[in-house]
Design a protein that fits this description.
disordered N terminus, 0% strand, mainly alpha
Length: 105
């Protein structure tokens, strides 16, 4: 059965016995392994706790990255700071200005 079970409550809701295991070798022997069920539940609880912590870390990392990106873009919009941070800005030279005659375009 490909259903991940999180607790004994879920097993009860699905109508499964407490000693349920999908290990074919153990089922063929006719042995009831409640310890494998508890190990499975323990693994699932541990995985859920780990994935929850990792998801929290990823959310915080994404938020921090977004804040740093906005801060960097705001700093680059200030000409004095931009000249200090971006070395290419100092190498650019004088901007081209198109000559306009008084007679027309």
């Amino acid at each position: 059965m490909g259903i991940l079970l999180r607790s004994n409550q879920k097993r009860w809701e699905l109508g499964m016995p407490d000693d349920y295991t999908d290990n074919a070798a153990n089922a063929a022997d006719g042995q009831q392994h409640t310890d494998s069920v508890s190990n499975r539940a323990c693994y699932e609880d541990t995985f859920i706790a780990f994935s929850s912590r990792f998801e929290t870390f990823l959310r915080r990392a994404a938020g921090t990255g977004l804040v740093l990106l906005v801060a960097a873009q705001l700093l680059l919009s200030v000409p004095v700071i931009r000249a200090w941070i971006v070395p290419v800005e100092r190498m650019e030279g004088v901007p081209f200005q198109r000559y306009r005659s008084q007679d027309g375009p």
